[in-house]
Write a structure and sequence with these properties.
- By secondary structure, this protein is of the alpha/beta class.
- The protein is built from 11 helices and 11 strands.
- It has helices at 22-25, 27-36, 52-55, 69-82, 94-101, 121-133, 145-149, 153-167, 183-195, 214-224, 239-248; strands spanning 2-3, 8-9, 41-43, 58-62, 86-90, 107-112, 139-142, 172-175, 200-202, 229-232, 252-253.
- A 9-stranded parallel β-sheet has the order 3-4-5-6-7-8-9-10-11.
- A hairpin with a 4-residue loop joins strand 1 (2-3) and strand 2.
- Helix 6 runs parallel beside helix 8 (153-167).
């Protein structure tokens, strides 16, 4: 619930709709997340101005299938205006977004093999190369979940390694889709991603049956060690949830951590567009 006159959020944890007001209206909570170790927070279209020290942490994301040029213009304009770190979009939109962001400090990011991870390695490599050729400066790929669950770890490694190689010198985040994996499979996925040269492991696309959990973040951090990135995304519905993820070892928090959505827009979790 929102008091329009005072711009205050009165929602309890159970009522929270992930509107993202916390980053604007609850500065203390967000600063605690930053002090704990978060260096990136996700947002969605509709954001208004935030504190300068937070702007550089925000991954401004638009992955819905019906995103229009007008929608892309809007998130780019917002990202430029408030000096956000990145704009993250589907690879088909990366060329347009990269041109809109050219000459600014905002980095364009493309997702690859999204959201299923079931496309062939060659197609992922092609998509990554095309995205970078079009202007992407970071790649988020979904690993081959079926191969992992089949015990075909060579295919999983080859899939990641070839995308990492194709994306150099730019960083690759590997999305595990943890809700579909056992703990043993999560461990194998993390080790494989690290050996294959990925810069980050990430919990979820936001399009599957579940998102990030404290247990998963703790497990992923323990396996990859302190020098590899861990991103919590999907199903994070309150700032308390996000703070727990950061405390558990996340170094980035996805769009479902919610950054301000104003002007009557409703809150949405990452992937649930």
């Amino acid at each position: 619930r929102l008091c329009k006159e005072e711009n205050l959020c009165f929602a309890t944890e159970s009522e929270c709709t992930t509107c993202g007001l916390c980053i604007e209206k609850k500065e203390k909570i967000v600063n605690e997340m930053v002090e704990t170790g978060a260096n990136r927070i996700g947002s969605q279209s509709g954001i208004t101005k935030v504190k300068g020290n937070l702007a550089g942490m925000i991954d401004h994301t638009l992955l819905k299938p019906d995103a229009t040029k007008k929608d892309l213009d809007k998130i780019c304009d917002e990202a430029i205006k408030y000096s956000f770190a990145t704009v993250c979009v589907n690879s088909s939109n990366i060329g347009y977004v990269a041109k809109r962001l050219h000459g600014t400090s905002v980095k364009p990011i493309a997702v690859i093999g999204f959201p299923l991870g079931a496309s062939s390695t060659n197609s992922k490599v092609f998509e990554a190369k095309e995205a970078i050729r079009s202007g992407a400066r970071e790649i988020d790929m979904v690993l081959n979940i079926g191969a992992l669950k089949s015990g075909d770890f060579t295919t999983v490694f080859d899939d990641i390694m070839k995308v990492v190689s194709a994306s150099k010198p730019y960083k690759v985040k590997v999305i595990l889709e943890t809700s579909l994996l056992s703990d043993e499979e999560k461990v194998i996925a993390c080790v494989t991603a690290k050996i294959a040269g990925a810069a980050f492991v990430k919990t979820s696309t936001g399009f599957s049956k579940g998102g990030a959990t404290v247990h998963d973040i703790e497990l992923m951090r323990r396996i990859v060690g302190k020098n590899m990135g861990v991103k919590a995304s999907g199903g994070i519905r309150t700032t308390d949830d996000a703070a727990k993820m950061v405390a558990a070892g996340a170094t980035r928090v996805g769009a479902s951590a919610s950054v301000a959505i104003v002007t009557g827009a409703t809150g949405k979790t990452e992937g649930k567009y």
